[in-house]
Design a protein that fits this description.
By secondary structure, the chain is α/β, with parallel strands linked by helices. It has a domain of about 140 residues: Flavin prenyltransferase-like (Rossmann fold). It is built from 8 helices and 6 strands; from the N terminus they run βαβααββααβαβαα. Strands 3-2-1-4-5-6 form a 6-stranded parallel beta sheet. β1, α1 and β2 form a beta-alpha-beta unit. The chain is globular.
Length: about 210
C-alpha cells in the first residue's frame, strides 16, 4: 500500500475547465496522490477559458500522463486507486465511456475504474441534452458511474463564481470521503442556512409578476 491514496483526474474538452484546475488545487493539500490526464481538446478549451498553459495545469498534479500513452499505469486495473473524476466530462468522452471504447487514455482509465468497481464521477457538461446524451448517461450509471453535473447550490448563497465552483467540487470530493472545507452544509450553520426558522412554517406565496423587494 502507498502512503497516499491515488485519485485520477481527467480533464476533457468541454466548457468548464476551471473545475479540473480547481479540483487539482483543492487536492494539492490533501493526502492524495493525483494522476492527471488531459485530452487535446481540453488544452484548446484551456486557452479559451483560462490564462494558464497546459504545463501550468500539469504542475498542479503529482503525476501526469500523456493522452496517447495507452501503456500508462492508470490504464491497468492492477494499479490501485480510489477512483477517478472527469472534470469536466465532454459528451464525446461520455460516449466513449458508455460504449467501452478506450480510444484515449482518459476513456481507458475510466473503463478500468468501472471494471474494478471503483468510484467514477463524471461532471458532464452540456445543455440542452438530446436523447443520445441521456442514454449514455443512463448507460454509465447502470455501469456504476456517478453522474454529477456541475449544478450550483444556491442555498449556499454564493457571492462569487469561485465560491460556486468550490462548493460544487467540495461535494464531488465528498463522494470520495475527502473533506475540502469548501462546502457550506445545510443545517450545520443556522445563521447561514436559515435552519433556525420554524421548519413547519409556510412561506408566503409569491404571485407572478409581483415585486419581491429587490
Amino acid at each position: 500500500m502507498t502512503e497516499k491514496e491515488r485519485l485520477i483526474v481527467g480533464i476533457s474538452g468541454a466548457s468548464g475547465v476551471i473545475y479540473g484546475i480547481r479540483l487539482l488545487e483543492l487536492l494539492y493539500d490533501l493526502p492524495v496522490e493525483t494522476h492527471l490526464v488531459m485530452t487535446r481538446p481540453a488544452e484548446l478549451v484551456l486557452a479559451t477559458e483560462s490564462d494558464l498553459a497546459p504545463k501550468d495545469v500539469r504542475a498542479l498534479a503529482d503525476v501526469t500522463h500523456p493522452i496517447g500513452n495507452m501503456g500508462a499505469v492508470i490504464s491497468s486495473g492492477s494499479f490501485r486507486t480510489m477512483g477517478m473524476v472527469a472534470a469536466p466530462c465532454s459528451m464525446k468522452s461520455l460516449a466513449e465511456i458508455a460504449t467501452g471504447m478506450g480510444s484515449t487514455l482518459l476513456a481507458r482509465a475510466a473503463d478500468v475504474t468501472l471494471k474494478e468497481r471503483r468510484r467514477l464521477v463524471l461532471m458532464v457538461r452540456e445543455t440542452p441534452l438530446h436523447s443520445g446524451h441521456l442514454r449514455n448517461m443512463l448507460n454509465v450509471s447502470h455501469m456504476g458511474a456517478v453522474i454529477a453535473p456541475p449544478v450550483p447550490a444556491f442555498y449556499a448563497k454564493p457571492e462569487s463564481l469561485e465560491q460556486m465552483v468550490d462548493h460544487t467540487l467540495g461535494r464531488i470530493l465528498d463522494l470520495f470521503g475527502l473533506e475540502s472545507g469548501t462546502v457550506r452544509r445545510w443545517g450545520e450553520d443556522e445563521s447561514e442556512t436559515g435552519s433556525h426558522m420554524d421548519q413547519n412554517a409556510e412561506a408566503a406565496p409569491v404571485k407572478l409578476g409581483e415585486k419581491t423587494g429587490t
